[in-house]
Amino acid sequence: MAFELPPLPYAKAALVPHGMCEETLELHHGKHHQAYVTALNGFVEKNAALQGKSLEDIIHLSHGKADMAPVFNNAGQHWNHILFWQAMSPQDGGKMPARLERKIVEDFGGIAQFKEAFKAAAVGQFGSGWAWLVLASDGKLKVAKTPNGSNPLATGEGKALLGCDVWEHSYYLDFRNRRPDYVQNWLDKLANYGFAEAQMG
Ligand code: MN3
Question: Taking the model in full, what pTM does it have?
Fold first, then answer.
């Protein structure tokens, strides 16, 4: 079974009022994410060791292996974007549900402190990559950042509850070079905290 581009969980224009234009989603989902899926399927087709494996298995078995870097990058980016589309919401973007709010206050000291830490990770990721809210193995919420196609599943930093894409293709049409503004807007108006809470288990 070849990997497939999942449909967006909302219309391409749904995030316009929240700072992400239709063209951004058209290109980001329809071109960039599709390109990762197409490339990954090409690698699987040529490598028997990858056939029949889940996306998660492919990420684990290619992580940290120089000769498998292109496989890892594309598998990682497929996984990251599947999460990214779900990590935004046109209806509930920025709305903090009670149970997640309590946990964030407990582990970060407050919502403002969490957002500052997340923004620092997102802005501090040099070049392309991702910022994450993860549930670490010690049961605490943490912020993490990864370069390029990597993610907390590969690094073992925890279960990814939210992931914010900080590749330039994610924000250049809407925010030009202003990554800090994109991330602030993402946390305040786009982030699907209900999805994050549901993933805490
Ligand atoms: Mn992207």
Answer: 0.98
